UniProtKB/TrEMBL annotation:
<feature type="binding site">
    <location>
        <position position="144"/>
    </location>
    <ligand>
        <name>Fe cation</name>
    </ligand>
</feature>
<dbReference type="GO" id="GO:0046872">
    <property type="term" value="F:metal ion binding"/>
</dbReference>
<comment type="function">
    <text>Removes the formyl group from the N-terminal Met of newly synthesized proteins. Requires at least a dipeptide for an efficient rate of reaction. N-terminal L-methionine is a prerequisite for activity but the enzyme has broad specificity at other positions.</text>
</comment>
<comment type="similarity">
    <text>Belongs to the polypeptide deformylase family.</text>
</comment>
<dbReference type="InterPro" id="IPR036821">
    <property type="entry name" value="Peptide_deformylase_sf"/>
</dbReference>
<keyword id="KW-0648">Protein biosynthesis</keyword>
<feature type="binding site">
    <location>
        <position position="140"/>
    </location>
    <ligand>
        <name>Fe cation</name>
    </ligand>
</feature>
<feature type="active site">
    <location>
        <position position="141"/>
    </location>
</feature>
<keyword id="KW-0408">Iron</keyword>
<dbReference type="GO" id="GO:0042586">
    <property type="term" value="F:peptide deformylase activity"/>
</dbReference>
<feature type="binding site">
    <location>
        <position position="98"/>
    </location>
    <ligand>
        <name>Fe cation</name>
    </ligand>
</feature>
<protein>
    <recommendedName>
        <fullName>Peptide deformylase</fullName>
        <ecNumber>3.5.1.88</ecNumber>
    </recommendedName>
</protein>
<keyword id="KW-0479">Metal-binding</keyword>
<keyword id="KW-0378">Hydrolase</keyword>
<dbReference type="Pfam" id="PF01327">
    <property type="entry name" value="Pep_deformylase"/>
</dbReference>
<dbReference type="InterPro" id="IPR023635">
    <property type="entry name" value="Peptide_deformylase"/>
</dbReference>
<dbReference type="GO" id="GO:0006412">
    <property type="term" value="P:translation"/>
</dbReference>
Length: 185
């Protein structure tokens, strides 16, 4: 089932998400639906708050970056209860977008490497480092669990220039090929 994507203006996107355990009701179905929603929406990552659930869960498929980084060929992972331990390496800028901010793309600077501990869909513990494109997607999706959006990294001037686009998103005056959940005012 494809979930509607929660868009800018919904307070849920600004909340810190709660940890879950392996008995979380319907978890495998939630994960399956998140994959379906992400692929349908042409995303490379999707966090649970983006589909209306304030839980610490996100999915990532970085295989689209395999042309530039061949090791990403089969990169598809579920992150449950993740915790970033550290970010390091040279900061680099890349144009980012977000399903919760349709029609907005901006250059964002992030560290090259992220060290993160998390549980997978079987609740097995992992601590790994990810770099490059995969590391960037993971940092972006992790931010959603902390109530942070990529526009928070922009200068005050860039944010002001986006004000009318953000207002249009928050009021549902935006066209997407995927369903969105517009905040109720």
């Amino acid at each position: 089932m494809k979930y509607p994507v929660t868009v800018y203006g919904d307070p849920l996107l600004r909340k810190k998400a709660k940890s879950i355990d392996k008995d979380h009701e319907g978890l495998s179905e939630i994960i399956e639906n998140m994959w379906e929603t992400m692929y349908y929406s042409d995303g490379v990552g999707l966090a649970a708050p983006q589909v209306g659930m304030s839980i610490r869960l996100f999915v990532v498929d970085a295989s689209s970056g395999a042309d530039e980084e061949p090791e990403l060929k089969d990169f598809k992972k579920v992150f449950i209860n993740p915790e970033i331990i550290e970010t390091f390496g040279e900061e680099w800028e890349m144009n980012e977008g977000c399903l919760s901010l349709p029609d907005i793309r901006e250059n964002v600077s992030r560290a090259d490497v992220v060290r993160i501990k998390y549980q997978d869909e079987n609740f097995e513990h992992h601590e790994e480092e990810f770099k490059g494109y995969a590391g960037r997607i993971i940092q972006h999706e992790y931010d959603h669990l902390e109530g942070v959006l990529f526009i928070d990294y922009l200068s005050p001037l860039r944010k002001r220039l986006l004000k009318s686009k953000l207002r249009n998103i928050a009021t549902g005056k935006v066209k997407t090929h995927y369903r969105i959940n517009v905040p109720v005012k």
